[in-house]
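As a warm-up, study this chain.
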Amino acid sequence: MKKVLITGGTGFVGRHVCEKLHRLGWQITVPTRRMNKAAAVQHLPRVTVIEADVHRQEDLLRLLPGHDAVVHLVAILHGTEAAFEQTHVALPRQLAAAMNASGVRRLVHVSALGVSENGPSRYQRSKARGEAVLQAAGLDLTVLRPSVIYGQGDRFLNLFAQLQSVFPFVPLASAGARFQPVWVEDVAEAVAASLDPQRHGLDSIGRTFDAAGPDVLTLAQLVQLAGRFGSRQRPVIPLPAAIGRLQARLMELAPGEPLMSRDNLAAMTVDNVSDGSHPGLQALGIEPAAIAAVAERYLGHRGGRDALLAYRRQPPH
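Now compare it with the structure written out below.
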């Protein structure tokens, strides 16, 4: 039985990856700093949750021996320049060094669509630098670049549905930003397919794949879709750029993880859409799901203000 170490395995994407690989017979190790966040995967018989900090080199060296592969999912959406550097660049560097020292060569790294060292946001630039670190490490590497990920338990469509259950309209910055949203189950399937080339007849080592869905939608259209299927559809009021930045700044000052940051707005000045320079999910034998078909199944009334408060109390993964 093959063993895989999943960093970020207790997060939104990680939970779905654990479930997918568990069903395929993998023995899974999930390190976490907060054991109380592991309830969503602890019930799976082939998942072992270990209290550890993957940012500590000694913990990585302790965890890695005996594993056949690593799936790296740790990322943040908000933070300072130093936080992005630590999470998206220094951690991949430490992971690569620990893997080489432990003799574990296979790595699937989930990055992000549109990353660029010249990108407009700290998120995009740091994710690109992290990719470069792993590309240079000499590992058997597959990179998956998803667009915005949605699905059961997401902080995207669910949030917009909740907002529309509470407020009479949605003031929206970057309303015209374009995305190619991808279902979390399709991302999890792409991880599994990358680890098992016999499933699709393609050796994914050394390759980068755009994990994007079939639909290209603006942010305003996504908000409308979330309202239509999740609560009630409210009018979307696009905000001028200056007002949008002020709104994001005020959200950054609120306690907890912000709903929107100025760095998010900077990222949305470029389309989060595949440009065709890398193969898509179809190359891995996956026909990505249409967002409307999936959203209709999992969105629903979530308790309005209580749901929003619960969101604000959640720490980042």
